[in-house]
UniProtKB/TrEMBL annotation:
Name the UniProt record assigns to this protein: Glycine/D-amino acid oxidase-like deaminating enzyme
Region (Disordered): 368-389
GO cellular component: cytoplasm
Biased composition regions of type Gly residues, renumbered to the chain: 379-389
Organism of this sequence: Lipingzhangella halophila
Stretches assigned to coiled coil: none
Keywords: Oxidoreductase
Keyword Zinc-finger: no
Gene Ontology MF terms in the entry: oxidoreductase activity
A Pfam family matched in the record: DAO
Superkingdom of the organism of origin: Bacteria
Xref: PANTHER family: GLYCINE OXIDASE, SARCOSINE DEHYDROGENASE-RELATED
Length: 389
């Protein structure tokens, strides 16, 4: 089968790798370079921590398990996944209520979640500061994080080794479908055909689907839920083994002693069309102060770069997977939880595309749930924290 995939992020490359491994003829079209979109600016937290409703939670659990299965099968390390668990503590009354509620709800679902005391937390993270004043502390043992460049590098290398053809940089200008084939029009004036085209273009999903007469509404690109800041440090003399999420700062390791910082209260000011704050900006200074408050050695951190990321957020906040056109030639996959879901979605999507057999777990995530023209001004992530993946 001839399959065209538009988008070389974690989802597009994961699906390409899967399909090529089954013998399909796969071409991936990328407008810039692999990982240049949302996949290159992500907190990369592997979790189903606050993902709601139940179906979305269960889909993310499948993603977490798929990451672990790669390690169990001896192929996990090259994919950049670190099964570290997550440590979270609450310093405000509102966060305390939310954290305790989340732990209770997740335990009822048999998801590894436990409230612990400060002594236990310090045994997990000896460099953690501020634990004695925390209202509550929890550990989520099955979670972890991904180093995005390693993840993308493995996916790209495997996909090309399996015969995937990567065409980049080239922008897909328009899609069209008939009962017999899918047509791809490129911005260089050329065209191509495929038996099926898969859209994996993240936040550009709505625009691309519309060229084929399909409605897949995404959260408004200028809305507060879709844009956010991530700060990247130089190597820091700090000890950190896992993502820490607190009331004021989220931080995870980024390899080589570097850290990634996220403070969601800053995201209301994020503007993807404006230059990101510099390493010596007021935001960078505030992030260093917050890091020093939660981690020994954080006071010596230097912010190397602040990036403005734009999240791939469907209008209702939930994953979209399925055929979007009447001819079943255009398959759309987009989700806010791309890093978590990629290893689980890839075989599901590949199976549906190759055989037409629906994956039961994807039944409530079809693009047909949207009415024509529906759009959200900000979107509801279903996660309680749209900045996390």
């Amino acid at each position: 089968m001839r399959i065209a995939i538009v988008g070389a992020g974690v989802l597009g490359l994961s699906v390409a790798r899967e399909l090529a491994g089954n013998g399909d003829q796969v071409t991936v079209y990328e407008a810039d370079r692999p990982g240049a979109g949302t996949s290159g600016t992500t907190f990369a937290w592997v979790n189903s921590h606050t993902k709601e409703p139940t179906g979305y939670h269960e889909l993310n659990v499948a993603g977490v398990r798929a990451h672990h299965a790669r390690i169990a099968g001896g192929s996990g390390a090259p994919f950049g996944f670190h099964p570290s668990g997550t440590l979270e503590w609450a310093e405000t009354a509102e966060h305390d209520r939310a954290l305790r509620s989340a732990v209770d709800r997740l335990r009822r679902r048999d998801y590894p979640a436990e409230l612990i005391d400060a002594r236990h937390a310090r045994a997990l993270e000896p460099g953690a500061r501020g634990l004695d004043s925390a209202r509550s502390v929890a550990v989520f043992a099955s979670e972890g994080y991904v180093l995005p460049a390693e993840f993308l590098g493995t996916l790209l290398t495997d996909a090309l080794a399996r015969g995937v053809r990567l065409v980049c940089p080239v922008r897909v200008r328009e899609l069209g479908t008939t009962s017999g084939a899918a047509r791809i029009a490129l911005d260089d004036g050329s065209t191509a055909e495929a038996d099926i085209v898969i859209s994996a273009v993240g936040r550009w999903t709505g625009e691309l689907a519309a060229t084929a007469g399909c409605s897949v509404p995404m959260a408004h690109p200028d809305g507060p839920a879709t844009a956010g800041y991530l700060a990247y440090t130089d190597p820091v003399p700090a000890r950190l083994a896992r993502p820490l999420t607190t009331s004021w700062l989220n931080v995870r390791p980024d390899g080589g002693g570097r850290l990634v910082l996220q403070a969601l209260d800053f995201d209301t000011e994020a503007d993807a069309g404006a230059p990101a704050p510099g390493p010596d900006s007021a935001m960078a200074r505030e992030l260093r102060e917050r890091l020093a408050a939660v981690l020994v050695g954080g006071e010596y951190a230097r912010i190397a770069e602040v990036r403005v990321g734009q999240r791939a957020l469907p209008a209702d906040g939930l994953t979209v997977c399925g055929f979007a056109d009447d001819h079943r030639r255009l398959y759309v996959v987009t989700t806010h939880s791309g890093v978590t879901l990629a290893p689980a979605l890839a075989p599901m999507v590949a199976g549906e595309v190759r055989t037409g057999t629906p994956a039961a777990m994807l039944a409530e995530f079809r693009p047909g749930r949207f009415t024509a023209g529906e759009r959200s001004a900000g979107g509801s992530s279903g996660t309680g924290n749209p900045g996390r993946q």
